[in-house]
Known about the structure:
The structure is a homodimer. The first copy, chain A, is an alpha+beta fold.
Amino acid sequence: xxxxxxxxxxxxxxxxxxxxxxxxxxxxxxxxxxxxxxxxxxxxxxxxxxxxxxxxxxxxxxxxxxxxxxxxxxxxxxxxxxxxxxxxxxxxxxxxxxxxxxxxxxxxxxxxxxxxxxxxxxxxxxxxxxxxxxxxxxxxxxxxxxxxxxxxxxxxxxxxxxxxxxxxxxxxxxxxxxxxxxxxxxxxxxxxxxxxxxxxxxxxxxxxxxxxxxxx
Amino acid sequence: xxxxxxxxxxxxxxxxxxxxxxxxxxxxxxxxxxxxxxxxxxxxxxxxxxxxxxxxxxxxxxxxxxxxxxxxxxxxxxxxxxxxxxxxxxxxxxxxxxxxxxxxxxxxxxxxxxxxxxxxxxxxxxxxxxxxxxxxxxxxxxxxxxxxxxxxxxxxxxxxxxxxxxxxxxxxxxxxxxxxxxxxxxxxxxxxxxxxxxxxxxxxxxxxxxxxxxxx
Lengths: 216, 216
């Protein structure tokens, strides 16, 4: 056990990214669940840990708290060089980060629980309208990303070559999340293939929502 | 002139980030404007450069195209070490990236032109409802970020110490963007102070929308 404490929620896709990263690095951690639908991430106790009130957050041995899943993953990759999550050259790293950010900056934030809640409470969106919204933003990014992956010889079993990395963490978590809104994945053959290849890796399978202690 | 070609739009906040980064590094570039409100980023010519149809994109000397502003900035920081945009230790880098991503992943994507357009076309949001939405997501992140900045001794003239970096690029661009929606910045003294310190640096002032050739 490394002394790491992971504050997270079984279904949160940013939590899935980070759990899979920790698993790939072979880092054990204490699992602390914060139930997002019950608002537990807005408790005073959790806001003292992460003033943003978001999961995941990672507490280090000395009590230092790291926030923002992608920042934590870059940190882990710098401090624990085993199973690198970024490739060796600046150009290749730029490719992998761009793929990761396409999901992390274009899909995930817009489809967050709190954004969907705002659509319902303020604009009167029903479940159908919310699902249409969710699928729209997935398609807006997955359609070009499918082309970018399929058309680049650097794509292998995973987004970049034959070992999983930062982009795969984001892709995997997004595809898991998509299932809650019946996203039609049939146009995205390469993305589906990479997802399946991830799922065959225990580090990813063990990061799935249903494998967590707070799963419902 | 470095042979770099910047595809961007004067008012886009991700373009502002990247222009300021290029300026801080002292890298000249050819400025190519794509008018977002006229949909020029969806032209076949631009989609051949960036299949995502988003700005900014940076073309290198050899025609390689980099996308996603934060990925491009990390690339520039790796290849051009002058004026480093990230600090020297993994823990400090994690802090700076987390501040940058809080803006890049929690505020900017939700307040993007295309998202605001969807609110209008599908949910019938008027200009007032769009402005309320915009300010809501700024406040959701700026409120905790103000605490995180004000309460950390590593905050200096800028987000991290006395030299501008990755987090300042995002903060600066967001504050510029906020002006279009009359965000009340009075609760955010530290963020305002950092913004003013950025504005006093020519690399940032020269990245402002009104200083660009396509400004209206």
